[in-house]
Structures are given as structure tokens and as C-alpha cells.
Amino acid sequence: MKHKFLSGLLILIFGILVTACGATASPTEAPKAQPPAQPTAAAAKPTQAATSGSSSAPAAALPDLKGKTFKVGSDTTYPPFESVDEKKNTVGFDVDMMNEIGKLINAKFEFQTTAFDGIFAALASGKYDVVVSAVTITDERAQTVDFSMPYFQVGQVIAIRSDNTNIKTDKDLKDKKVGVQTGTTGDLAISKVVDDKNIKRYETVDLGFIDLGSGKIDAMVADSPTTNNYVKDAKYQGKLKIAGAPFTYEQYGIAIRKGQPDLKNAIDAALKTLKDNGTLKNLATKWNAES
Fold first, then answer.
1. Quick one: which of 12, 29, 52, 180 has the fewest CB in 10 Å?
2. How far apart are CA 226 and CA 64, in angstroms?
3. What is residue 10's predicted lDDT score, i.e. its pLDDT?
4. For 136, which DSSP code?
């Protein structure tokens, strides 16, 4: 009896083992491929920081100029881009922009007031490292200085007195007395349509608007944001207006003395960041820089 019981028990155990082994996949049968896991919403959608180019990106992402200080030449009579406030501080869109660039690339930019006429020669001679002064990028200027990527688009416009109904476009300026700042692209543009004898050139743009307000000239030509600024100034409110639309389109850039590739590359990288993360747009709103 004892042997029969053991034999029966062994047969039962063997049957259980065979049944269990039969439940596994055959070694010659490939396992079925599983569908790839779907990304979560958080993984599929980049974060705001990744898409905005925020200035809070790690410092390693931008060039590091190791705390260097650079001299900036600027005609500080050109609001809203650069002007001197009642506390004798240089303020404006360009000033704030350079401060933001400095934070991103670990550098400081010190503004120094100078006349616009001759500013590029001073830059080329080494008096300044950069010129930041609502400077239009032109092929002629690019022969003596390097330019950053563009950071602002403007156009030349015509300011006239509010009671003037005869001037609507630049074509109406032919026989008029027209003011312009010396050495600017406005000077170049108006010289193509007005006889030189009828052009009155000013060292600073504010002097031209003073003469326009008092009736000494018929029109003043300047960049659109700056003209908007003067027209809306309290002392001219209701006295001046802009005639028509801009008759040129131009782009501002930072002029950099040639032979400074590291500085140019750093400024370009910082400008791209400030453009991508909306800082330049916010500064335009802050300073009412209407183009």
C-alpha cells in the first residue's frame, strides 16, 4: 500500500508540472509588440521657459564677458530712445535695452552723451566701444562699423503745425523750408526731394522741433517714434501733427567698433533672447515707442 500511494503521488505531481509548463509561451513564438507609450500632456507641450527664450535661462547658454565695462556713445536728445531726465540721468528704450543685455552677458554699458554728427568716426577711432543712439543700419555705415542684428523698425515721417493743410507727403516738401538733424537718415532721405538751400540742419533734433513750433520752418523730418514723442509733448500738444504715413522704412541696430567679434556675438545672442522672450516689446510699450 505504501508503494502504491507513493507511485500515485508521483504521477499526480508530474501531471501538475506538465500542465504548468504548458501555460508558458513556446520558445519559438515571438512576443507580441506593445504599442509605444503616449507622451503625457506635460511632456508633449514644451514649457514656457523652453519656448520663450526667457532671460532666466542658465548663464552658460549665453556668452560671459566677465564683468567688462563698455563705453556707449549716444545722442541723448532722441526720446523715447535716449534722453536726459530732470535728475540728469540718461533714460529711454535704448538705455533699458542695454541694461538688459548687460545682465544676460555679464557686462556693463556706460552711456556718454555726444553729438550724432561725427559719432561713427568717434566709434571707429576707439573713443567708444559701441554706439546706441536709434541708429539705422545702412550699407555706408557698415563699411566703418559692425552692426548687431536689427532690434527695432521705424520710418521717416513729416511733422507739421496743426493748422497746415498743404503738406501731406514728402512730395509736398519740394519748395518748403524743412528741418532735419545733421547726419541722420532723415537728412539723407529729404535731400533727395528738397533743394539743399531749403533744408535747415540741426545738431540735435529737439532744436528742429522748437523752430517748427515757432513757425521758423514748415516741416521737420525725423524717425517716427521720436516724432510721435515730440508731437505728444505737453509744450507742443495741439500745435503739431504728423502728415501722412512714413515715407521710408528702416531698422535700428547697435553699432560696434570693428575688431570686437566676441562683443558682437554676445550682443546678438542677448538681443535674440530679449526679442524671443518679449522684453523688447515690453520696453516699446513702456516708452511709448510707436513706430
1. 29
2. 33
3. 33
4. B
Taking only the tens place, the pLDDT of each residue in 212-242 is 999 999 999 999 999 999 999 999 989 999 9
Instruction: Name the grid cell of 111.
Output: 552711456
- Joined together, the cell numbers standing for residue 203 give 545738431
Mean per-residue pLDDT of the chain:
84
- Ordered by where they begin, the domains of the chain are 62-153+252-286 (3.40.190.10), 156-243 (3.40.190.10)
pTM as predicted: 0.77
Unique residue bearing C-alpha cell 534722453: 83
